[in-house]
Structure formats: structure tokens, C-alpha cells
Amino acid sequence: MNTLPRGREIILGIGGGVAAYKSAELLRRLQDHGFLVTVIPTSASLNFVGEATWEALSGRPVQSSLWNNVHKVPHIRTAEIADAIVVAPATADLIARIASGRADDFLTNVILASDAPLLLVPAMHPQMWLNEATIANVETLRSRGITVLEPDIGRLTGKDSGVGRFPEVTRIISSLQELLLSDSDLLGHHLLITAGGTREPIDPVRYIGNRSSGKQGYALAFAAAKRGAVVTLISANVQLPDIEGIETIHVETALQMFAAVSERFPKVRALIMTAAVADSRPTNAALSKIAKNDLGAIETTLNPDILLEMSRSKTSEQILVGFAAETSKDELVERGTRKLIAKGADLLFVNDVSDGAIFGTNETAGWILAQGQSPIAVASATKDSLANQLLDSLALKLGYAND
């Protein structure tokens, strides 16, 4: 059973040692565990394994030079996305450069610019590993909180044998697991998240829809995966790229979303309904375009209330999270609380969308509501920030459900 956080961004640095070829296997196993891997080889390592191999295995472009795409400041951008950095193999030279704080190539620039956990995987000749300079450098790094694995003992290049062998991949991944578990409070939980806005066809050209962009749902899906959850995302008419490592199901209408949620809800621990689902749909959608002069009153039929329907079948271990968009700022909490109770939700986020606020933007504000608890105010915040605040509350609820 997979016990590692999924959806994490890992930087895999490749040092210039013959053991570089073993990191191809490490890369594959990281991917098997759901990690998203960007490879940064040093120029020396390319003598052993070339860029084409790393690009083919990772499915991502490889940058080894500090001087490519300088206008994009790639060493800072790369450092910002990293949830962890693994350097394997870490040669004596690379360990020395990192210990002294040097930043003379792309990899060391990224390491110096990142505050992500750093795991060094040494591989070198025994005499180099046991050299007083290397011992001092390793002690320096460990004193700074950097994890430096002990190399294995065994056969090295040629006829040499001893301490300095590249560690087994399972031990490397186990060490990475320990580094990342501290903020993996959703590990082992499967979440179902809806995003976007449904469209209900009037004819092949026109539809009833809304202004939801799906940004909040996608922010929640991304944040949940980074906190260890397995995420299924049901996306309705969203103009955002699929998130790598997250299963995404695309739907258009409320009935399609209802069917997709109904099928998957029994298998998950929590449903987060951020999607704006149309309340009703045209009773009889035309098969051909309706002439403008023939457009008049449209007879409609109510759509299922997906959150309410799921509340009627949920188990005591399942958590429901709803979203409510209101246009009455003075009664926001009261209206949100009524919806929270009426829909049988455990948590609900309510916000004021008067004058088109919130929709399509990167900012949000509102209240997190839970039955029997005081409302939590969310002042103006990014949708990424709200995602983690909601997941904090969800993690507590899931903990109670496990008691």
C-alpha cells in the first residue's frame, strides 16, 4: 500500500559520479509513489547520463545551465515549487560546495534559494568519504538540519569495495518519507472535489451558466494532494490545465456532475463541493439552434441538489464541505448557517459575490462555518490560502471521525 504523500514537487539533483545511472531507477520509483520530479543534473554528471535520458524519464524539460532563460529567473522559480530536494548521487565536491554555501551552477543556486527539506545521498570512493574534509562538511550540513544519508557498504567501481556505495532506492525513499510526513495530515484520505460551473444547454449554441472559474476547486485539489491526500477532481467547464498527478473527470452539465459524484462518493472520505451547480435546466433542450425571434420563456426543471443528496447517504466517517455564494453581506453568516444545516454539511464556506466579486479572481473572503462552532472569518486572502485554511478544518473533522 502506498504510504507516501502524492502530488509533491521533488527536485532531483544529479551529481557528477558514476552512480548517476542509479538515479534513473530512483526517479522511476519516485514517480511510482506519485511524486512530480524535475531533474537538475550538474554539468559533470552529464558525462555519465545525458539530458535526453532525464527528459524522457521525467517527462519534463531539463535545465543544467544557469545561463538559459535568464529573463525568467529559473533558479528562483524552480526553488519556489520544490517541496523537497534530493541530491543523488551527492559527490564529495558537491557536498563541499553545498556546505560552503557556493552557488556556481544551476543546482547549487536552486539549493541556496530554497527553504525546502534537503536530502543528500552520498556516493563516492571510501577514501573520499572518510577524508577529514568530507567528514567535516557532512557534520556542518547535519548541524544545519540537512539530512545526509550514510552510504552503503559494498562493491564500487572497478575492484574497489567499502563504504561509499549508492544507497538502496528503498532507503532513500523511506528517508524522504520521514522528511515530508510532518505536513501530511491528509495522508491516506481520498478526497472528491468539484470545481467550475455547470452549463445547461438551451440549444446547441446557448446555455444557462454562471461565472465560476474553478480556481478555488483547483487550489483545493492541489493543496490536498500536497498534504498527502489522493484526490479526484470533477471539473465543469474550467479553462485551467489538469493538475499533474490528480485524476480529473470533465463534465458539462449538472446531471453529469451528479452522476460522477454519485458514482465516486461511496469510496471517498470527504466531498468538497466548490462547483457552482445550476439550480435548474431547460426542460427540453432544442436539438437545433433556436431562431432569435423564437426565443421566449424557457421552461425549466430543477436539478438535483448534489450536496444534499450526498448528505442523505453519507456514513459517519464521511465529511461534506459546501460552498455558498451570497449577495447579502449583512446576512452572510446567517444565510450560510441556514444552508449548512439544510444541506447536512459538516463545513461550509460562504462568501459575498455582490458586483461580481470573487468569480475569476485569485482573491476571496468570507466565513468558514461548522455546526456547533463559532464562525471563522477569512479576511481578504488568496484562494490558495483559503484552500489550506479549509483543509485545516477538514483534517480536524476527519480526525474526529476516526475516533
What would you say about this model in short?
33% of the residues lie in helices and 24% in strands.
List the helices and strands and how they pair.
Layout: E1 9-14, H1 22-32, E2 36-41, H2 51-58, H3 74-81, E3 84-90, H4 92-99, H5 106-113, E4 118-122, H6 126-129, H7 132-143, E5 147-148, E6 152-155, E7 161-165, H8 169-180, E8 190-196, E9 200-201, E10 207-208, H9 215-226, E11 230-236, E12 247-251, H10 254-264, E13 270-273, E14 280-282, E15 300-302, H11 306-311, E16 319-326, H12 332-342, E17 347-352, E18 363-370, E19 376-382, H13 383-402
Give a verbal description of the structure.
The protein contains 13 helices and 19 strands. By secondary structure, the protein is α/β, with parallel strands linked by helices. The strands form five sheets. Strands 12-11-8-13-16-17-18-19 form an eight-stranded mixed beta sheet, with helices on both faces. The protein has a five-stranded parallel beta sheet with strand order 2-1-3-4-5, with helices on both faces. Strands 6-7 form a two-stranded antiparallel sheet. The longest helix is centred in the C-terminal third of the chain and has 20 residues. The radius of gyration is 26 Å and the shape is elongated. The protein starts with 8 loop residues before the first strand and ends with a helix. The relative contact order is 0.09.
